[in-house]
Specification:
Blueprint (H helix, E strand, L loop, with lengths): L2 H10 L4 E2 L5 H6 L11 H4 L1 H14 L3 E3 L7 H6 L6 H19 L4 E6 L14 H18 L3 E7 L2 H14 L5 E5 L13 H11 L3 E6 L3 H14 L5 E5 L5 E3 L2 E3 L4 H14 L3 E2 L7 H12 L30 H7 L4 E6 L8 H13 L3 E4 L11 H11 L4 E6 L5 H13 L4 E5 L20 H11 L18 E6 L6 H14 L3 E6 L5 H13 L6 E5 L5 H10 L7 H10 L3 H16 L5 E4 L6 H12 L1
Parallel strand pairs: 1-10, 2-3, 3-4, 4-5, 5-6, 6-7, 7-10, 11-12, 11-18, 12-13, 13-14, 14-15, 15-16, 16-17, 17-18
Antiparallel strand pairs: 8-9
Length: 622
């Protein structure tokens, strides 16, 4: 253990350490362009960077962070600077070291490591090992250049911070490690993890100091710190808030919290158990000087200071129009191949992980997100509420799964009105799973309508402006209604009869169970045509990507209506640990054959492998 490392841990145990404030926002106020790479200033304008370091040291900071927040391979690649990764990181450390030497003060230099700027699987395309390698590449350079500790900061994803911590442990030797996450206004990470889970996860991953930074401001971070401290009573904590929530004033980004306010909160953080305090976006050397003055008043410890406020999150309103057909309806009517992807609602309040997955799928090129309603009769958030959130926040159209089971006529019609008012136009009518298999087996399982009856109510009632009793609902709805179809039924005659009933009720399109034998589609449709004439409705054929031979065997042997050919089972068995990739390849091959007779596909991810689905979508688009 080095002398600097010993000093760091000694300071942690004896006093509240003061770190510096924002670097990027201060550089911006001095002429740095937000469209340029701030880390590159280490090479092109080192004097500007060094001046900010010097001012923070003079303000009383005991730790300064290197100007390397974005100096990883992914972010540098966006600026065409990936080849200069080592040079930029080395220059950042050297600049900090020279500034410290010129100040003649014993200041610790922290190698600053920010987020990679990409999403990690299962909510992104970059695999965990690739992320760890990227973090390791940067951290290795910082450690070799001579930093005194590593600070991983402003991470919003637990998957990402765990890989960063592991990379630091593998490449930075015995250097002290701070791992700091940022939170949204609801005191959760972007993926919905609460402060207690974050503290436990970061602590278990092996960080020496658990950090919170950025977010909305001091009041929020004090709240979060108290929760984390209660979860890890003996933990060490790093707190660097923004100077409040940023506001745009006259074309400039302004932060409302002034230096005196930060001085008060320095004491509050210290009293709540913070070992290291400082500032993030919007803070300046003046903020750090105020924090220094406040801490210096109580060298033996902090007095109790209980400032704490909360602010309501913004509420978004939405107006909807009734007349225009859904985008899915327009695509299918135009004969454009469409891609629907199913997602399950969350089991709790947080929608962050679901939104991250929906964002990835939208970026990959999905046409529509299907939101299941209480799949397997498990308690989950209301599907039409999730559809509304996805449409508003991600901007991709949704299809609401609407089971008849467990709904009487009053609730069915009330929920339909609510769905339409929220802008939902695509409805997939289904019977729904029996409550006997789910979380509440004794729950009411009654229903007033079968799927064909509900389809008729929507298409011939609501879409004509009438409720079930024939009374006016004010104006017609414009629902585009889907129904279920089994292309490989045990009793083809009964399935053909059910299909004709749904067509007569007004179904606009059909979703099928998973298809592994693409020839079953044309074969069944020929049987139907022989009795009732050609089916003039588009079909979205079910695609359930396989992830392993065990998964394939389970579907083949235990799921009614699913038949997986021997050749596919053998292929998955031979794939071994590469089952996911084999599953992607099989799915792409199936879809290419299905394109010959279907209007699109209905993809059902397994185990939240949205990265896998994105790969499939991009492959079939190509």
């Amino acid at each position: 253990m080095s002398q600097k490392t010993d000093k760091f841990f000694s300071l942690l145990d004896t006093q509240a350490i003061l770190a510096d404030g924002a670097l990027g926002t201060v550089l911006h106020t001095r002429g740095a362009n937000f469209n340029k790479c701030f880390d590159e200033l280490n090479l092109s304008n080192p004097a500007m960077v060094a001046e900010v370091h010097r001012e923070y040291i003079e303000a009383g900071a005991q730790i300064i962070l290197t100007n390397t927040f974005e100096a990883n391979r992914y972010k540098l690649d966006k600026y065409g600077l990936r080849s200069k990764l080592e040079e930029i990181n080395q220059a950042g450390v050297e600049l900090a070291r020279r500034t410290v030497a010129a100040a003649f003060k014993d200041i610790l230099i922290a190698g600053d490591v920010g987020p990679l700027g990409i999403r990690i699987a299962p909510y992104g395309r970059v695999q965990a090992a690739e992320a760890r390698a990227a973090f390791g590449e940067q951290i290795s350079v910082l450690a070799s250049a001579g930093v005194d500790l590593i600070v991983i900061e402003t991470i919003s994803d637990l998957y990402e911070i765990k890989e960063a911590i592991q990379a630091a442990k593998e490449t930075a030797g015995s250097l002290p490690l701070v791992a700091s996450m940022t939170f949204t206004r609801d005191d959760r990470t972007v993926l919905g993890d609460d402060p207690v889970k974050v503290a436990n996860s970061v602590h278990e991953a092996g960080a020496d100091v658990i950090g919170i930074n950025c977010s909305s401001g001091p009041a929020q971070l004090l709240r979060i710190l108290k929760q984390m401290r209660q979860a890890i009573p003996g933990g060490r904590f790093w707190v660097k808030p923004n100077a409040g929530w940023p506001e745009q004033v006259g074309g400039r980004i302004m932060y409302p919290a002034d230096p005196d306010y930060f001085g008060d909160y320095a004491l509050s953080f210290c009293e709540a158990g913070a070992n290291i305090v400082g500032g993030c976006c919007g803070t300046t050397p003046q903020h750090i000087a105020a924090m220094r003055a406040a801490l210096d008043k109580y060298p033996e410890g902090c007095q109790e200071n209980t400032l704490e406020f909360s602010f309501p999150a913004d509420v978004e309103d939405q107006e909807t129009e009734a007349g225009e057909p859904s985008k899915l309806a327009q695509r299918l009517h135009a004969g454009k191949f469409s891609i629907a992807v199913e997602m399950d609602p969350p089991r709790g309040l947080s929608t962050h992980k679901l939104l991250a997955g929906a964002s990835l799928l939208a970026e990959a090129g999905a046409t529509v997100i299907n939101v299941a309603d209480s799949p397997m009769a498990r308690m989950r958030m209301s599907a039409w509420a999730v559809c509304d959130i996805v449409q508003r926040k991600i901007g991709i159209e949704t299809t609401l799964h609407f089971p008849t089971r467990g709904r009487n006529l009053l609730r069915v019609q009330g929920d339909l009105l609510a769905a339409h008012a929220l802008g939902l136009r695509n409805i997939f009518v289904v019977m729904g799973d029996p409550t006997s298999i789910g979380d509440y087996p004794d729950a009411n399982d009654n229903y007033d309508l079968v799927p064909s009856g509900l389809t008729k109510l929507i298409k011939q009632g609501f879409n004509a402006g009438l409720d079930h009793a024939g009374a006016s609902i004010g104006q017609p709805t414009n629902f585009f209604v889907g129904a279920a179809l089994n292309l490989n039924p045990g009793n083809p005659e009964r399935e053909i009869k059910n299909l004709k009933r749904k067509v007569d009720a007004g179904a606009d399109f059909f979703l099928t169970q998973p298809v592994y034998l693409p020839e079953t589609g044309p074969a069944f449709l020929e049987q139907y045509a022989a009795v009732h004439g050609p089916l003039e409705k588009p079909i979205l054929a079910g695609i359930l990507p396989l992830v392993s031979v065990r998964h394939a065997n389970f579907l083949h042997h235990e799921v009614p209506g699913v038949v997986i050919p021997y050749e596919t089972l053998t292929r998955m068995e031979k794939a071994g640990d590469n089952g996911v990739q084999a599953g992607v390849e099989i799915a792409v091959e199936l879809i290419e054959k299905i394109k010959e007779w279907a209007g699109g596909v209905y993809v059902m991810p397994q185990f939240n492998r949205y990265d896998m689905i994105a790969e499939i979508i991009e492959a079939i688009k190509e």
